[in-house]
Amino acid sequence: MKKSERRFSLPIFADYTPFRFIGLAAAAVLIYLLPKIFADPFFILILQTIGFTYMAVLGLDFLVGFTGQKSLGHHGFFAIGGYTTVLLTTKLGWDFWWAFPIAIVFSAIAGLIMAVTAFRAKGPYIVMVTIAFGFVIEVTAHRWVALTHGPMGIFGIAKPYWFGSRLNATGYFYLIAYAALALTMITLNVLSSRVGRTLVAVRESEVAAGSLGINVYAWKTMAFVVSGIFAGIGGVFFAHQSSFINSESFPFSQSIMFLAAAILGGSGTVFGPLVGTVLLVLLPHIFAGLYKYYLFICGLILLLGIIFFNKGIVGSLANLKGFGWLNPKKPRLDMPAEKLTFDISVPNDRPLLEVTNLSRYFGGIKAVDGVDYELYPGCIYGLIGPNGSGKSTLVNVLSGVYQPTAGHVEFKGEIISGTKSHEMAVKGIARTFQTIRLFRHMTVLENIMVGFHIHMRRGFLGHMLRTKATVKEEERFMRLALALLTRLGMTDKADTLVENLPYGHQRLVEIGRALGTFPALLFLDEPAAGMNSYEIRDLREIILDLKAAGIPAIVVIEHRMDLVMNLCESITVLDFGQKIGQGTPSEVQRDTKVCTAYLGQAEA
Amino acid sequence: MLEIRDLCVDYGTVRALHGVNIIVNEGEIAAIIGANGAGKTTTLNAVLRLVPWAAGEISFAGRSLKNLRSHQMIRVGLGTVLEGRQLFTDQTVEDNLLLGAYGLGRQSLVKVKENIERELKRFPVLEARRRQLAGTLSGGEQQMLAIARAMVADPKMLLLDEPTIGLAPVIIKEVVHTISEFRARGLTILWVEQMAYVALKISNRVYILENGRIVKEGKGQELLNDSHVLEAYLGA
Amino acid sequence: MFEQIWQGIISGLAQGSVYALIAQGFFLTWVTTKSLNFGQGEFLMMGAMFGLSFFGYLGVAGLNPFLAGVLSIAAAVMLGLALERVAVRPVIHLASFSWVLSTVAVSIMLKNVAVLAWGPAEMKFPAYVSEKMIHISGAGIAPQELFCLVVSVATMLAFFLFLKRARLGKAMMAVANNAPAASVVGINPTYIMALAYALSSGLAGLGGILIAPITFAFAEMGALIVIKAFAAALAGGLDNPLGILLGGLIIGLVEQGATIISSDIRDLSIFVFVLILLAIRPTGLMGVKAIEKV
Asked: Which candidate, A108, A365, A64, places its Cα nearest to that of A229?
């Protein structure tokens, strides 16, 4: 059986300190040496171009490779960054270094606007929104001649000052390259931490991410803003490269080029954006001699590259021998001796969950129809019924995935009907899903860490700079995650990619991930699916153990009677959206309505 | 008629089926039961070449299915009713049947019409709704249509994936009755079922799948009296 | 003023109908294969270019206009089959994006070929309908625009009928509705995929012949048109051909309306319109909102 290789993806969470310092130091030295080795002025210009194009591609890949949002509008950010500094320096006489932060602010605002307009759009619709966005900016630049001089352009753009003297071409290259290096370092830091995990989680499953308390819209917006800022910065350096820009400097084909660089290089990998950028910047120059055919050849190479390097160049190299040393170092996993206990307080004098006359309709279908339901702390509950009886819909409503059509839900005394899914985790309700929604390209440990999302406090700045406090928090939660895995008996699998685990183990990981929110109420939606009788016996032990460890209430939705009847203290039976039975296992088994509808014993 | 030998199927790097062996004789009903995620649907999908085989061999009416593609299965006589009905919800009942007749190949329009009318007669509820969009039918009606659509092409064998999901008990009785009827007319059937009791009652041979392996097989009536089976799948 | 409005409406509808026509190609390939030809504009251009040759502009003995049109469309269809085989089929099962870049790559190549074969200059496309303006209550309407509108809409209606009534059309919609079920009843998905791209390219080629007399024929003609067609498709709803027809016509009208106000905001108006529309209705005017099963 072939083990799925980890590509050179950014090491989410892993500690890769030696690699990071050596790598960045080597890069810094290489940057210094490049213009010394290749002193040709034309080549320096190309190096500059690679530098600022890389910034835009890096920003784009942040969006595409990690968050999975597609954009063909980044030439718009390029334009905003470029025009801002150019106009402020040429028309208002500002110093470049005062104009630069303004360009960042405007790019951020543009990113925010793009995020808001792309709010609810999915798939090709997002692409259209970004295209439209980019075009609006491009056409505005063309037509608002009073501001931008349109196609006639702006002359006299000067390079920035650096400690008293104007930068020459080589100096400008150093500025660009070291800025790009800084952006790369920030990106690596940010993505190999909670931020990266959250973005990948959002990409892999928005629904699962929401159930763990992640505000998907807010994070997607953040990704757009960061992506826009990077591209804007690239645009600034592009605009000051020569002394002239006009509205034709930022065509739609730029966005195609950024995307091609990101994908051909290898989306979501460390070196992908760089490799892709170098390739796409150099390509036209290599074939410039064949000027009549050069578009054709560029197109052909792009086509062949897409077909044969289907994970991008870097991604495809990852599977070859000899490149393994480029993969991130595995995290040190000191085995803690203790098992995790849950210290969750709930009110004792009232039901934990009180559902009154709850209904959820989908058009004409009454998936849940007037259900009354009560849960008390200290109990393991069962919820059974034939497929299509409304069990999952009920859980979906109670966990905020759907809003109720009618009826009333009270949790810990507080009315929660109408709460959205990502707010439920904070309230104390967690769940697993009928079809496993793990974050497939992350390890077991990383999946569990996402579960702790609502408890992790350190902010974006801390992650960007990898402060001591941030690292300490990561380590603390890593220990917590291991303790949780110890409770589930899965510590030996901590570093395995979840997509390589057998079905039954994947379900356990999903349970562990939900436990990370420290819920007062845990819904397990068909946890035994895919398990054989022995695994079910183990699962039963685990669930009983969770109750002992301090989880106040657990609801098991299941078809496997050997689990339900031997584990649950109180069972509710649904059929066609309504409650048709309730009681202890023996009571339910003797109920004729239940038998006819579901268990099938009494009926021939 | 259908022979599955040592079938192994992988999903990515995880093995979903480990050497499954199933034989369905002509004119018999064979059932595969087991929990969700045990591999039942994967087995049917493997027969239909909707998923690739990692190892093993499947032959139908003496010829190997290895080099056939999914859309050719109906041509060799293997009709299918997929899990969740999988109707063409945006098309009418009639059109669903017309599309089912694709499997007849280049037959005369007369023959196609004949078969469609035959199926509509078999399921009068469908006749009444022939111009209705398939997506607006009730669960039971959709199941009937899915079966009719498969039968329009005169298959020699019928594969059914969980035909009772989401259906009321009284409809389940009808579906099961229809399946028994088919056997009486000489059709060979392999079905995957979540309601173990129902499958055990009418099937000639039953295979129990757990975690991608056949853990038990036997005559339907015999397994009904087996205590392990009763506990695990019937909740007794 | 009144005449201006009439002229504007007809022009807008004519342009819009061509956007809608090529956008139907997006619909067809999108619903059947979840991909589309980002180089559709270049296919429109090739249709126009082949049209130039077949119509006898380049000194080759002129063919009967109808025959010339059919041959041009046939050439576009061939290109579409080649596109599907070479740039779509190999990457369709991969990471969600590659077909965007591969179809763009092919369009880049086609543009170069066009420049080499026909030169980069703008060329007047021979008028195959009378060039005399038709006068209706004072407004002068170009017959080519009327022809454009009528043929586009008629083709689209024929297209809808094909999808709804013809056996093959139903088969295509079946694949779009539910691909595994289509396989199981005997429909070959690969064949349908190729057919979708063939038809899509044929529509683009037809669009090229219709619009070239109005806009001239040149290698770059497809670039902006394809973006507007894409906008039309998404504004109307990518999975609803009627919505696309509507979307195209509306966009054509918006564009013309904006031109009358000020030529500066012509292109801007379309994109602002689409942005606002998609913010309010994320799946377009008549797109189907899919409910994800959780």
From this structure: A108
For residue A487, the distance in angstroms to the closest alpha carbon of chain B comes to: 24
Partner residue facing C185 (CB), from B50, B90, B100: B100
Whether the CB-CB separation of B71 and C189 falls below 8 Å is answered with yes
Cβ-based neighbours of C186, under 8 Å, separated by 6 or more? B71, B72, B73, B74, B75, B102, B103, B105, B153
* pLDDT tens track for C76-86: 999 999 999 99
Q: Which of C112, C238, C265 sits opposite A124 (nearest CB)?
A: C238
Tokens of A336: 């803690």
Answer whether A558 touches B (CB < 8 Å). no
- Helix/strand/coil percent split, chain A, to 5: 55, 10, 30
Give the domain ranges of chain B. 1-77+158-236, 84-155
Which sign, positive or negative, has the C-alpha torsion B112, B161, B54, A496? positive
* Residues carrying CATH 3.40.50.300, chain A: 353-599
Does residue A560 carry a pLDDT above 80?
no
Q: Do A136 and C271 touch (CB under 8 A)?
A: yes
CB pairs under 8 A between A and B: 79
Residues A386, A575: contact at Cβ < 8 Å? Answer: yes
The three-state secondary structure class of B179 is helix
C164 touching chain B per CB within 8 A: no
Q: Looking at chain B, how many residues does it have?
A: 236
- CATH code for the domain defined by A353-599: 3.40.50.300
B160: distance to nearest CA of chain C, Å? 12
Q: C185, B74: Cβ pair inside 8 Å?
A: yes
Tell me the per-residue pLDDT of A346-383, one tens digit each, with 9 for 90 and over.
888 889 999 999 999 987 788 899 999 999 998 999 99
> C29-34: long-range contacts at Cβ-Cβ below 8 A with a sequence spacing of 24 or more?
C29/C193, C29/C196, C29/C197, C29/C200, C30/A124, C30/C238, C30/C239, C31/C173, C31/C176, C31/C238, C31/C239, C32/C172, C32/C175, C32/C176, C32/C192, C32/C193, C32/C196, C33/C88, C33/C92, C33/C193, C33/C196, C33/C197, C34/C92
Residue matched to tokens 């569990």? A448
Residue B172: what are its φ and ψ, rounded to 5°?
A: -60, -40
Is residue B20 a contact partner of residue A9, using CB atoms and an 8 Å limit? no
Looking at CA atoms only, how far is residue A451 from chain C in angstroms? 19
Q: Is A308 exposed, middle or buried (0-12, 13-18, 19+ CB in 10 A)?
A: exposed
Residue appearing with tokens 């079946």: C174
Determine which helix (DSSP H) or strand (DSSP E) holds A451, and give its type and residue range: helix A444-451
**Which of chain C's residues have a Cβ under 8 Å away from the Cβ of B143?**
none
Residues of A in contact with C288 (CB under 8 A): none
Q: What's the whole-model pTM score?
A: 0.85
pLDDT at residue C58 greater than cutoff 50: no
- Transcribe B37-82 into DSSP letters: TSSHHHHHHHHTTSS--SEEEEEETTEE-TT--GGGTGGGTEEEE-
d(CA C66, CA C86): 30
| CATH class of the structural domain B1-77+158-236 | alpha beta
Q: Exposure of A320 by Cβ count < 10 A (0-12 exposed, 13-18 middle, 19+ buried)?
A: exposed
Q: Are A280 and A45 in contact (CB under 8 A)?
A: no
CA distances A542 to A337, A501, A539, Å, are 18, 18, 5
Q: What pLDDT was estimated at residue A7? A: 42
Angle, helices C222-236/A124-143, rounded to nearest 10 degrees: 130
Residue type, C243: G
| Residues C91, A302: C-beta atoms closer than 8 Å | no
